[in-house]
Amino acid sequence: MPRTGRRRPGPARPTSTSTSTATSTSTARATVATLGAFAVLGGLILAPAATASEAQGALATRGTSSDTWSQPRTKETFHRLATYPVFQNRPDGEPATAETVAEISSISEDGRTLVYTDAAGKRIGFLDVTDPDAPVGLGTLGLTELGDADDEPTSVAVVGDVVLVVVDTSVSFTEPSGRVDVVDLATRTRVRSIDLGGQPDSIVVTPDGTQAAIAMENQRDEDLAPEGLDDGDLPQLPAGFVQMLDLSGAVDGWSATPLPLVAADGTALPALADLDTPTDPEPEYVAVNPSGTKLVVTLQENNGIVVVDLATATIDRAFTAGTVSVSGIDTVKDGGIDQTGSITDVPREPDAIAWVDDTHVATANEGDWKGGSRGWSVFDTTTGDVVWDAGAEMERLAVRVGLHTEDRAAKKGVEMEGIAVATFGRTPYAFVGSERSNFVAVYDVSEPAAPRFVQVLATTNGPEGLLPVPSRDLLLTSSEEDSAEDGVRATVGVFGLGPRFAKDGGTPAFPTVVSADDAAGAPIGWTALGALSADPRAKDRLWTATDAAQVPTKILSLDTGAKGPAVVDRSLTVSDGGAPVGLDVEGLWARPQGGFWLGVEGATGAENALVRIDATGVVQESVALPAEVAAGLGKWGVEGVSGTTDAAGEHLLVALQRGLTTDDGLGGYVRIGRYDVRSQEWTWFGYPLETTDTEGDWIGLSEITAVDGDTVAVIERDKLNGPSAAVKRVYTVDLPADAAADGSVTPVEKELAIDVLPDLRATHGWTQEKLEGLTIGGDGQVWAVTDNDGVEDATGETVLLELGKAKKLLGGDGSVARR
């Protein structure tokens, strides 16, 4: 079985060279994660670049080298065990395409039954996680069976043998209402309901199970403009509050007592007077400290935090979450990853909150109508001081692992939304979720004022629910984004801590690619790696390219020689006429004589081309497809390029993605072209494609690479992902050397070389659709990479696979690998 993925290092700390200024009700102390001349990510020590022998791209932007590595700390490494699509747990008769989400979750006392909210489906779901490698759907309980068809669950908490299901029953913003349903966990029958007197959001239960608190948000209408104000502005009454539940004794005796956050006459409480619009508090999230004595409440729209004494149900204090200034981040949506922007005095507006210990809380600063600092913070609850702030660290982390989302650059960036803290063994960990970049950052918070980055975990889209289960060394994530049309489905992710959960040699499945720092100290920006080529001068290097998802086009060098993820340590900008250009690069071949050939897909058939650039990235020539071929192309054109050189000169091999409309006579074939650079002649071959019966699916070619002088390997794949993915294969094809260069098409036969689907599934994540890059490295290994679509309508995870020896898997005489 080919080895799946790269060997990856263990945990360490990412670099951040940004400046961050945080302010609160008293003097704030903001820290930025720096490591002087060395930066560490996931056990990789990125040291200053050495002036070693020059390879391709001599004038490329150079990052730090990857020749020094630390050993992974396997005892504190989380491993992805499973990714369960919750649409598979839908009720009988409901179509698989119906929107079905997992948002907030809780766990039974034995740690084996997960309960999650599905607001889209108006229900809660149950999963058996007894075997963390293989969660089993246990069905759902629809709120329409308990109330009204419009009722939505907002949160859930398991208490003993019952589940508290928090339900929003509001008919309008001005008439908020809600209830909490008490549901027997075993029988899934409702025991009773308790009216909440408003619109609820999150719930928390004290460690002893005798009390619960619910954030009663009474949320604003984002489309309503109060008199003299803008849409979505506060105040918009009624004001929110906290509902305290007494859970002592029998269920039929449980009761609710409201804790107001405004005075009886609607004026601001003195404790909240320094917050934004204190006459309209909107509680978002609640958390109880480890000793069960204090409750903390975030008022997201009010940019505030309230501390409540649980024994007396009174407010201890309230303080503003303050503002933050962050530099060294991308703040413009322009297609590029430009980390020179900054935000100034932006309100944090925290969403989720968690206690680090009895006097410190951590907040995920998602932001709302006025703010969003793109990070997370730690506060001292006795003073309201900020003792630590992530600054640009989360944005830089997203860029480093290829999860930067350009679509959100001008808004709230990575948008940290969920946070949880739990102690595994003797180590308290903070888990912070990025709603837009689809990851969870793990930190050791043994020192609350100095969190230490441990690891980054890839999730599916919108990881809001973060549920640590220390008793079983598990972390469960629930992702709320679901769109069958886009191939994005909500999931529950399962991660296990420690060596006993390790697979593939004890290293995590993510990341497989990271970037080193550029000359300015920022991680080299990369995304959408849709092409792959060997470096003809270095056996432990590959070249790859960004497609249309990043502008201008970048050619990137990957160092694959050390243990751990491959490292993007050189970046070459493609230019033409002295200006950077944006090309949809789908194929790449590093020429032995220097420079590159690019396979460029065009918006129209005529715009498809082979483009040659020199070692500095400057365009030297462009070769159009023959007019009769271009005329038969739709929006799917050039998808791969490779090449060979011999005594007769340079020969390019080109894969078109789908069959031409003018090739009806071939039936089910797609073209492979051979272009003789010296004679400028094209020879065409007809490659037989697999077929699919899945509605909306199609099968085509994604890459081509030369195996030897007359043999090529191609990627053939379907358009499906996740559990639907079926065809992710590498085939080999012999191209007859005597085929005529007269415009005719010579049919060829293919032979299955590698079924890559098992390798993709072995990552235990969401099976990626776009297996798009393939090459034979100078070390004779077969490499493949997935295109992450720029994190747009995709999970964003990039999977780089080292599949095994080319001689064994692809055959041929090995001449290409030996060059």
TrEMBL record:
Give the stretches traversing the membrane: none
Q: Where is the composition biased (Low complexity)?
A: 13-27
Per the database record, which ranges form the Choice-of-anchor I domain? 102-368
Question: Which regions are flagged for Basic residues bias?
Answer: 1-10
Q: Which residues form the Phytase-like domain?
A: 525-789
InterPro entries recorded: Choice_anch_I (IPR055188), Mesenchyme-surface_protein (IPR052956), Phytase-like_dom (IPR027372), Quino_amine_DH_bsu (IPR011044), WD40/YVTN_repeat-like_dom_sf (IPR015943)
PANTHER family, alphabetized:
MESENCHYME-SPECIFIC CELL SURFACE GLYCOPROTEIN (PTHR46928:SF1)
Region annotation (Disordered) ranges: 1-27
Q: Which Pfam families match?
A: choice_anch_I (PF22494), Phytase-like (PF13449)
**Gene3D superfamilies on file:** YVTN repeat-like/Quinoprotein amine dehydrogenase
Listed name of the protein: Esterase-like activity of phytase
